[in-house]
């Protein structure tokens, strides 16, 4: 079955890079997602990557995928206070199965 | 704004009662998903509808039921409520059956007292 693990907390200084890590278990063809949840708000889809890709970049966001270790990371360059939120990693087999979420990583940005 | 609308935003009710949560998907989206977010369980998938038909079922209790109407809005019915049902309930929608790009609503916060 699918299982997604994330560390619970990360604290970085404003202007530094943040790296949020995630591991997943399913070796089938998989879509992997990053969502952001700000306090009192819903989940915002940031980006997703298919498991036959190694990297995807979108402005300040870089997703790296290590298929051998089933490890996914989200790098946020030049982290700002507005990036403070909970970041969820999620997976789905070929986008056809319901999203399985990790517990979320709470990112705190210190000014 | 994701384009997914959930009502109400907050709901407080007593144990044993029944409530209905409503979701309007983004224009053109045929799939609707319901998720429950609680402190101890995290985000759990409940159920998915696609164009009016049930597509997938997750950890949904028998006391809970959902449907998707011809205009594609969806309702999640929660009955015989217990304190442990207090949670944030999210609706998400996507164009296809696949949730490659699923967009979430703001959620309904349910408090059972």
What does this structure look like?
The complex is a heterodimer of chains A (111) and B (113). By secondary structure, chain A is mostly beta strands. Chain A has no helices and 11 strands. In chain A, strands 2, 4, 5, 9, 10 and 11 form a 6-stranded mixed β-sheet that branches. In chain A, strands 1-3-8-7-6 form a 5-stranded antiparallel β-sheet, with no helix packed on it. Chain A is globular and about 40 Å long. Chain B is mostly beta strands and 113 residues long. Chain B has strands spanning 5-7, 10-13, 19-24, 31-38, 42-50, 53-57, 64-68, 74-78, 87-94, 103-104, 108-112. The mean pLDDT of chain B is 94. Chains A and B meet through strand 5 and strand 10 of A and strand 5 and strand 10 of B.
Topology, number of strands of chain B: 11
Main sheet makeup of chain A? 6 strands, mixed
Structural class of chain B: mainly beta
Shape, per Cα inertia axes of chain A? globular
Strand residues, percent of chain A: over 45%
Quaternary structure classification: heterodimer
Q: Spans of chain B with pLDDT under 50 lasting ≥5 residues?
A: none
Q: Biggest interface and its residues per chain?
A: A-B, 21 and 23 residues
Mean pLDDT of chain A: 91
């Amino acid at each position: 079955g699918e299982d997604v693990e994330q560390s619970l907390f990360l604290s970085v200084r404003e202007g530094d890079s943040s790296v949020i890590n995630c591991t997943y278990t399913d070796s089938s063809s998989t879509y992997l997602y990053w969502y952001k949840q700000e306090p009192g708000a819903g989940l915002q889809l940031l980006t997703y990557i298919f498991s036959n890709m190694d990297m995807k970049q979108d402005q300040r966001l870089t997703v790296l995928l290590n298929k051998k270790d089933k490890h996914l990371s989200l790098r946020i360059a030049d982290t700002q206070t507005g990036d403070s939120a909970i970041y969820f990693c999620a997976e789905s087999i070929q986008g056809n199965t319901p999203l399985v979420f990790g517990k979320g990583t709470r990112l705190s940005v210190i000014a | 704004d994701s384009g997914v609308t959930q009502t109400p935003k907050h709901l407080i009710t007593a144990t044993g009662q029944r409530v209905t949560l409503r979701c309007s998907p983004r224009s053109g989206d045929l799939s609707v998903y319901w998720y429950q977010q609680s402190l101890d369980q995290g985000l759990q998938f409940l159920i998915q509808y696609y164009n009016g038909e049930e597509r997938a079922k997750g950890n949904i209790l028998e006391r809970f039921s959902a449907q998707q109407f011809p205009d594609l809005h969806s309702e999640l019915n929660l009955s015989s409520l217990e304190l442990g049902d207090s949670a944030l309930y999210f609706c998400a929608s996507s164009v296809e059956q696949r949730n490659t790009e699923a967009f979430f609503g703001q959620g309904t916060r349910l408090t059972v007292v």
